[in-house]
Amino acid sequence: MPPQEHVADLTALDAAAASAREGFACMFSTSDEYESALVTARRAEGRYGKPFDWQALLLTGCVFTLSGVLLMFL
Q1: SS3 48
Q2: 38 is in which domain, residue-wise?
Q3: Residue 28 CB partners (closer than 8 Å, separation 6+)
Q4: What is the pTM of this model?
Q5: Which of 10-24, 41-55, 57-71 has the lowest mean pLDDT?
Q6: Smaller CB count within 10 Å for the chain: N or C?
Q7: Confidence check: pLDDT of 31 > 70
């Protein structure tokens, strides 16, 4: 092969490598930014519902249990 063809092949290879690098570029500079954007997007989709209030249910159960125990002893 003549040297001009080698130069053309190397130039094409460099262009292909640069194109591949651009395809893997990330719009987030840190993983914290990525996770924050991911959670924001998932909240917008409605994936995270409101958490159930277990404290109110537990308090109500304790009140009924204590009331039942007090009624038994009175």
Answers
A1: coil
A2: 3-73
A3: 34, 37
A4: 0.38
A5: 10-24
A6: C
A7: yes
